[in-house]
Amino acid sequence: xxxxxxxxxxxxxxxxxxxxxxxxxxxxxxxxxxxxxxxxxxxxxxxxxxxxxxxxxxxxxxxxxxxxxxxxxxxxxxxxxxxxxxxxxxxxxxxxxxxxxxxxxxxxxxxxxxxxxx
Length: 118
Description:
This protein has 118 residues and is α+β, with helices and mostly antiparallel strands. It folds into two domains: 1-42; 58-116, no CATH class. Helix content is 40%, strand content 19%.
């Protein structure tokens, strides 16, 4: 059976005081940070930038030619994500044909080969 020594009894209250002091310091630091942020940090107004060209975010998408040889054309707005029909145009310069495996797999295969070489 162990008896508590006077030394052990003496350290417990000092530990409690130390824990209370550290807790008060942490809470005071948090409160001080909130007060400083609310009262002394001035909000910054957005800096006006150059006027944006409304046509800068609009592009044209041309699809494959239909059986009559005309390419449907669409207008794509990057800001809203809306694609609207823009008529049909003659296909003077058709897009490149996909590879033997279907186009997209060729790209994926080339990326995979790039990682295999490492």
